[in-house]
Structures are given as structure tokens and as C-alpha cells.
Amino acid sequence: MNIFRFYKDEFSKLLKDNNYECNYEKLSVDSPRQSSFGDLAFNAPLIFSSSLKKNPLDIGAEIADLIKNKFPEFESIEVAKPGFVNLRLKKTFWFNFLSSFQDDKGKLATEIKKINIEYVSANPTGPLHVGHCRGAVYGDVLANLLSFIGNNVTKEYYINDYGNQIHMFAKSVYARLLEIKENIKFPLDQGLYPGDYLKDIAHNLIQKNAIKDLSDYDLIKDDIGTMAMSEAMVMIKSDLLSLGIKHDLFVSEKELVGKDLVAKTIKILDEKDCIYEGILPKPKGNDNEEWEERNQLLFKSTKFGDDVDRALKKSDGTWTYFANDVAYHAYKLERKFDKYINVLGADHSGYLKRLKACMDALSDFKTDFECKVCQLVKLFKSGEPYKMSKRAGDFITAKELVEAVGVDAVRFMMIYRSNDSQLDFDFDLVTEKTKENPVFYVQYASARIHSILRKVELKKDDFDKKNLNFLDSEAEIDLIKKLSLWSKCLELSSNNLEPHRIPYYLYDLASSFHSYWNLGKENNDFRIIENENMALVHARVFLLEKVLMVIKSGLSILGVSAPDSM
Q: Taking the model in full, what pTM does it have?
């Protein structure tokens, strides 16, 4: 239960019953800035002061009296500047809260939505690299989170297997085939993909006896492209699996083009008066003297908030990448999701407005569509930029990163900062067994609690005799209060598409647990299980089971293991 939402609803009802008029949407119940202020902070005096034209402190006094008469579970109610009602709950409230506390799996979605999340969608011309890692983990964790609270989520990957980069990829594989079979040196001056991974693809094709005659590239280029692409996707899916990621659906750009979906989608937009023949201005910063303005087929994306209208056809008459993207998003709409989320890399931040424009145009502004951009990741070791092997050519692969530090560290740290902030990935930090390493600290809490539970052999009958009133120390009440923040964390994370809140919360919860555990080393009264008062032992074990439940749930959303020993 989200106690903050609960009391906001209850307080709002109380004020409405007493004829207070204001914009109730602006009312909030949150944690106070300092714990000394209490457990809840209600902002009603500030909100009401304008409409009532009264001093917020006077309004606060009125509201405090109303709450005091209606809600006996509050130990203290105080009015504070500039206009808050601060409330502290009695210990009995926290005992009752703990007794019925659950992790809220599948219970928080106000309505079950069908959600499509497209993420990674890296060009299938090479392995996933570190730059893909962050978006991959963010998208996967976000999907897990939205599913955890009760939604129906589809994880989708859009394969960009059409266009010039695929032709170049096929040509690069062909060059590796010649290198292996005919000892022809791989050309480094033709703009081909240089990575050694192409040798693996070429070897696989040779082993399968897929290409028998290399004498005429033009005759076999389509076959090479198709087979090489298939091998590349096997490699990419393996890279994704090393990150703990498994998509529900892979959609091929080539197949969409082959089904003439692009032309059909452009026709739909034309019928909506969103297509015209026109001339685009010279792009800003384009100093190419060969650039010339020309009449071309354009999408009226500025009609939907974009900075410039977008070209749909190239000079050779083929569709632009954007035209194919429009068709792909039309295909998404055909499958009728309640919400669509695209996760993009920092190099695609310029796509946000045009993608939103095409979705608004196709749906007549009736779709819930959102793009999230993941900023760059920088690797550090010993305080310096860190370079690993470069088997992929000029970048570090995701699989190499996982092999170096483990999948748990990669997933936890990739989500430990907001997606719109640059992330510094410190190799030294993620391998330390200290409090400063957040993934270790949270996992260590899981291992410690498991260890405690293994030492306690309690029958179910004994557990039923627990008395949570024994949990009256400040440290124990603090742990219960931390648990009460879990639902709030889930709601804020899912509503704002900010899954980084979850590792923050888990680290905070783990810190409170470790502090509680350490008290037992200083004071025998705080030993969790080595105590003659078995009712107290039962109560403490019950509390720690709830802490472990949340840690396991939180780590499962992150796709990180919750070890029972370390």
C-alpha cells in the first residue's frame, strides 16, 4: 500500500466534506524534508491560501484539527512554514502496516495496459557494444517494471536490415570470405566494416557450405546479405542473452518494405493531407558545395511540432530511412497497444520530434507515445578512461564488458543513473566489496538475511505467535518506514518511466538493514536471533523476511540476482 497516496485521498475527501474549494490535483502528501519533521507532509495550507485568501498557517491549524478528530493513528500533528501540515504516525500504525505488508506485485497499475517497448534495435552489422548496453538495460528494466506492477508488456526489437549499410555489410563479409578462402588481403581503404567478428560470420558460412562460388559478387550479393544478416542476428541475440535480455518480438525492416507497407502508409498520410511535393532548405551546418535544393516528397512533420518537414524519397526514387520508420510505426499502431515507448541512444536524440510527429499524424493525436533517450556511457579504471580489447573493430562489445565484471554489475550500474544523464562506469568500483559499490551492498544485504534465516528453525505455529509490538527500537521502526516507501518508489518509477529510482531505493533499504545488523555487534540487545526473548526473535525474523522480499522483488525488476550467500 502506498500510504502517501492513501492519505492524500483520505485527506482530500475530508476537506471536500468540509467544503474546502481548490484545485485538488495540486494536493500532495510526501515525505518531509527531514525525518525530525515527522512521517508525512501535507501541502494543503499552501494550496488553499490563494483561493481562501488566508494565512496558510491559519489554514493549517484548521486542517490539523480536522485530521486530529478523524484519524487517531497520528501521534503528533504540527503546522510548519511556509504552509505544511507535518504528521507523525504512532508505532502501532507501523506494526499494523508491517503485519500486512506485501511487495505489491501486479497490484499497482490503476488500469492494466497493453504496452509496447522497443529498445536496442541496433544496426545488425556487428555485435552490441557498450554504447548499446545502457539503452538495452534501461529498456529491459523498464519493461520488467511495467510488467511487475500489472501491465501486459511486449519487448520489441526493430531490425534495420534494409538499405545501404546492409549492402556494405554484405560486401564486408564477402571480403572476409575472399581473405579466408583465396588469401586475398582484406581492403582497409574501401569503407568496409573492419571488425574481426566478420571472420566468424565468414567461417560459419564456409562451414555450412553456403557460398560455393565467389567469382562474381553481383550474382551472390543478395544471398550473402541474407545469410550474413541471419548470422549477425544470432550473434546479437547471443549478446543480448549475455545481458539477460530476451525480446518477445523481432520486426524486420526488409519484410515491411517487401510487403509494400511503406507505400501504403504514405498513401494513408496523403489522405490525411500530410504529404506534399516541396523543397527543403539547406540543412544547418551543411557546407557541402555539391548540395543542391530539389523538389521532393515531404511529410508535413512541422504540422505536428517538428522543426522541419521530412523527406520521404531519395533522389534515386527509393524510400528514405524515415519513410521506412513511418511504416514501422504504422505497423505498431495496427497492433493496437495502449502505450508505445521507444528507447533511443544519445545519437538518435534528433529523432524524437519526427517520430512523435508521425505517430500523431497516423493516429490523429490519439496515441500515447513516448521516446526516452539514454545518454553516453564512459568507462573508467584507476581514474582513467579504460580501453578493453577491440575485437569488434573500434569499440568495446557488451559481451566483453559482461565477461569483465559480471552481468549483475553491468545491469545494476547501467540503471543507477537517470537515463538522461551521462554515466561513468568505474571498473574499480563495481569489483569492490565495500559500501561504495551499490550492487555489492544490496546483494550483501540479501546474503546476510538469507544467512540469518538459515540459522533460525521456527515452526509455522511459532511464527503465528509473533508480537510485532516488540519492534519498537528506532532502527526497527526506521526499517519499517523504509519498506513503506517501496510502493511509492514503484509508482514514481513507472509513472515517470524512471527505473533508476529502484536501485537508489534498494541501496537506501540495504543501508538501513546493514546499520540495524551492525547494532548487534555493539549491543547484545540488538542481536537478531541470539536472544532469549523468542517473541522478539520471531518479530525480527518477520521484519527481515519483509526486507528480503522487497530486495528480491527490486533486484528481479533490475534483472539482478539476489544471492543467498556471498
A: 0.92
